[in-house]
């Protein structure tokens, strides 16, 4: 098979850089162009220092974009929708990493979580990558909400997130002396990702996801702790069965729940650089609460990795192609 | 006033060391003895290196303990209750930092949160210091549960904690390469502190606190995020009033909720070394959920600091004596 | 004694904030004004959140500065020298924390390391606080260079520094995802502090200090590792004697060198919030090299703390007044 | 070509786990056995949680080891030499990761840095992997010492290292509250790796390497700062030429020295998971000092990665096989 020609619009940010790293090592892909207004003409390794000696690519001007098989858009939220008009003729297939096309399947975009939308993706020309926190939350709760065993109005989700979620724009909040050691409730209520989560988990019902986000001192990673009140009595064994049924064949989902050892439940640090979503759970013996713990790397399964997974599905490739990195330990 | 003679039983651990630091600088206190089986005869600065050049005290054998005005017990959980018999004749006043006497006001111990039990403490001879996570949670929720405006069965509390909570006993889980960068759900359900929390917040009602604890990469600090479902409609202004009424005169409670700046809500790093409990909140505009955020230093307001606050109250001293350190920024 | 009236020019930065914290708790000082162009009219706790509930001070306009006993200047390097003209009539005594008056005892400023210049400080009206890296280095090497036992041309000093050294101005380099985990040689040669170090250590000889600075992932702290080639054979005992002679009576210098335990040599984290400079050393058994290890908190002994120490000396106060905080463990 | 059958003796430690990760993804290798006394019979992912769902291997008893093409030994220092007798008949080729065979080319082992010993490795049956700190230091200094432009008696090397260097044995020093935030001079003089460094850099001359090691708060990584006094005047351009001559064709060495951007010099965090050694330098304009900065991942180029590189060379494979991971940014 001829290699797919692929370009990245807006490739100087963190998600764009991660995508570029993955695509450069993807055996079925040829990276054509990576655009950046700000860094036009500069070598890409100037802003992505991990790519030194890996590639001699330089950033192109967005206006010089040429046709290609697949176009990835990594623009700031709000810019993609404006930009779509300009690029729609350049590539048959578009994968957008912004928040612009996630809701209401706007403009024909499939919501980009393969575990929920694989069949739609296979024939799709447009995929909208899911939000990182949304991905961690949706994958944790999907088997429960699909089966209707969760109190629809009382699920509480607390995500702990790293600083790369905020992108590479500097601010007082991201200044190291202020951000280091922080345990910062930056979004106790009203997080933008709630809408995506509700969209994917409602299954025609009226539901509420009570979502809060706390920034902690790490760079990559999301840990979502979801507190679900079960509407029917389920043993841990039955819950296992439910998750196994939903995810037993999934290449990037692991159920992590061991009785011994240090790593009894998912931990984002083990997933740095990988496309896994690890999910574990514990049923409260004293109440109807089920705690579901899920972890991802926000730049991988939460952004670039999941986008490459979508590319693989859209083109009939093995879903794990270019996404085999298993993660490191210790780290 | 003559200085109070004070000794510490079990002074080689983290809480004992913190207590010793505070007492050495307390103007109304004379530290007499600090016991340790393991380090008997050794200078205390051998295990508490921050006390170098501050004191020449050495650890005493527990069996050599002499009478004093106030005895602090910093023994491992489970040991204090056995030990009480041996020391009850040595000191009129005993402040215990273990979990042994917190429940059911056993053996005449007052539960050690001054904001809830100040009057009882004034005449008390025995105080049992509250658990660190319990302190952060109880202080966050007390005004709401006292007034009965929280759904009694549906409060979810997620605490993020540092590694010093585990004490100074080494383990695989505390080995730096494993613990560094961790976001570890070490106690999704079943945490021991739940009983204390329920005891203090029930006010005769049947309540449930759905509590989970996640270890993150910090040494000191607790951030508790409490998700409360209000049973009556309250504006943020009314909630402010409620907290002001409960804590307006409290020297160690600050309501932290600002519209601008980086530090809009409580953050444990700002409290390192202080006895403050900072509390903030945000009402979800889209639902009946109130998110309450509270932060403490687990070794201070969560252990040694709160114990010194109790000592001050028991002896009619200004409550803030020896606890004036305001915390550092940046840190 | 009446309290000294004290004001701070340029009080919105990290050194200014630390100074304000110290002065607010100093028993012989009354803080009058704290100026800031940018935050004029705003409460100081807006930028120094550790001072919440501690003070109701607001920032003044620099032009509204009124006369006081002591003026601290915490302006950016380069601004102090321009500003001096405007404020010289306002206060008899001026302590400047910038780099502007450190060299050549310009404008009558005494170089602000008390361990070297205490007698001059006693009668001085102007003190120029020393650089943080310079302080750690000079205090480590002073006894050796004074006695002339170090090869004057071959001393290598490697400092490891935290992010607060860079102040509170944001930049790409201080953006958390970039700065976190960094081990960054930001100044392998040519560091500005070298001139101060040479000035203080030369004692009329021609000397060279080969200085490099590496930024590591911490907020506060400097660890200087100095490699000295001895020109005469000295046992560790003789080196001890040399340091004891120089610093035996110093309240803020501790010789830290123990054979057991974890903390055998100085560590900056134990000094967070303190005015100590801890110094240790190890003689290489196989060569003429002596390794001297020194640690400080860059915002304390490296800036605000040392400035308060100078204030105490200039006014005949006990040198440790307001500087008693012993540091925390664990931290 | 048939796959090489490979086993690992002592595979439960950090280096063993990293080696296993690399070998499981190596296209020319089949992992046969991984031994561990302590974990015999347990799945390898029990101690290497990053290998969950990657392999179903379980640990074998050392006594059950069967013949294979290549045997990697990852035993504690001191054990390998005893063990060699037992395993020498099992495999024609042995790669040892301990310190036991590094000096004096004992027992026919080639010192395992390919950039210095590639030709010897090609025909070798035994390779002894180099120490991590030694690797970073030797690669930084080799072009200078080979050409004889460095003062042989006055080179000072300061390495900053992470906690994984200490392996997975727990201790008080590695207890998170003690190790977190540490800047710890754990080996100011007398480090074991000095002998290897001297062996590789002496080229028949008498030389001294003044080496100190400081532990900092990271898990993986070494940054070596080497201060070299040049014996002849060299411009930065000439130094470039010297390094390019030595390493221009090397697949795993990158000269990192850029005038702009944040990452002007090598940084270990960019190398996490990679086999690169990045090297940069800065000539002091005011003296004869050259500062050379080198970075590696201690478990990769400093252990497992370099061992796989040796395996590739010994078997005529492309040297980068299985070592293509480029590292992550941000991290």
Give the topology.
The structure is a homotetramer of 331-residue chains.
Chain A lengths: L3 E6 L4 H11 L4 E6 L33 E6 L5 H9 L3 E6 L13 E2 L2 H9 L3 E3 L3 H15 L8 E7 L14 H4 L3 E5 L5 H9 L7 E8 L5 E8 L6 H12 L5 E3 L21 E7 L5 E8 L3 H15 L17
Parallel strand pairs in A: 1-2, 1-3, 3-4, 4-6, 5-6, 7-9, 11-12
Antiparallel strand pairs in A: 7-10, 8-9, 10-13, 12-13
Helix pairs in contact in A: 1-8, 3-8, 4-6
Give the tags.
homotetramer, 331 residues, alpha/beta, Rossmann fold, Dihydrodipicolinate Reductase, domain 2, 2 domains, seven-stranded mixed β-sheet, six-stranded parallel β-sheet, 8 helices, globular
Shape of chain A: globular
In round numbers, the mean pLDDT of chain A is: 97
CATH topology of the largest domain in chain A: Dihydrodipicolinate Reductase, domain 2
Q: Level of helix content of chain A?
A: 25-40%
Greatest interface by residues involved: A-B, 49 and 49 residues
Q: What is the H-and-E element order of chain A?
A: EHEEHEEHEHEHEHEEHEEEH
Name of the top-level CATH class of the largest domain in chain A: Alpha Beta
Structural class, from secondary structure content of chain A? Answer: alpha/beta
Radius of gyration of chain A: 20 Å
Q: Report the strand count of chain A.
A: 13
**What is the strand content of chain A?**
15-25%
| Unreliable residue runs of chain A | none
CATH architectural category of the largest domain in chain A: 2-Layer Sandwich
Instruction: Give, in spatial order, the strands making up the sheet with the most strands of chain A.
Output: 8-9-7-10-13-12-11
Major sheet of chain A: size, sense and barrel closure?
Answer: 7 strands, mixed
